[in-house]
UniProtKB/TrEMBL annotation:
The system is composed of three essential subunits: KdpA, KdpB and KdpC. This is Potassium-transporting ATPase KdpC subunit. Keywords: ATP-binding, Cell membrane, Ion transport, Membrane, Nucleotide-binding, Potassium, Potassium transport, Transmembrane, Transmembrane helix, Transport. InterPro entries: KdpC. It comes from Sphingobacterium suaedae.
């Protein structure tokens, strides 16, 4: 018995030291070199503070709409809906989002709506939309705000983030940053 218990206790203590002390300390140390010391990128606008790495809800017609959230943009409980693509309730939700989008964006065909504007991400907190998702909203915003479509296209181009190292992931646009820039556009 002594031959089994003593090694088990030693292994437990070693695991605790490595995984509960050393590893978190290493990760925390590396985070100190990141912007805002690993606490996320923060933007203050109109007296409110926003985290740019957490999705925000934008549903007003004068803004670029954000990606839907399965958790109502609550960072305390991130997650997807966990419903299969064949689930009737899920399909009704997506169809309702498509219908809403078409009502607010006349002249856009259903086939032109990017998937990221009608489906939630896996975390429910995706702060980004695709470039196509931004471009498909230009006509609505230009009409409401009285801004030339070309100016909005330039704004989209200026806020497009390229893939990491030009290889990993698609081009994307942070909706919060884009909408703040849209508000400051004269």
């Amino acid at each position: 018995m002594k031959t089994h218990i003593l090694p088990a206790i030693k292994l437990t203590v070693l695991s605790i030291l490595l995984l509960a002390v050393a590893y978190p300390l290493i990760v925390w140390s590396m985070a100190q070199f990141a912007p805002n010391k690993g606490k996320g990128e923060v933007i203050t606008y109109n007296g409110k503070t926003y985290y740019t790495n957490i999705g925000q809800s934008f549903t007003e017609d004068k803004y670029f709409w954000s990606r839907p959230s399965a958790v109502d943009y609550n960072a305390a409980g991130s997650g997807g809906s966990n419903k299969a693509a064949s689930n009737k309730e899920y399909l009704q939700q997506v169809q309702a989002r498509i219908d809403t989008f078409l009502v607010h964006n006349p002249g856009i065909a259903k086939s032109e709506i990017p998937v990221d504007l009608v489906t939630a991400s896996g975390s429910g907190l995706d702060p980004n939309i695709s470039v196509q998702a931004a471009k498909v909203q230009v006509k609505r915003i230009a009409k409401i705000r009285g801004i030339a479509e070309g100016n909005l296209q330039q704004l989209i181009l200026a806020h497009t983030e390229k893939p990491l190292f030009g290889l990993f992931g698609p081009e994307k646009i942070n909706v919060l940053k884009l909408n703040i820039a849209l508000d400051t556009l004269k």
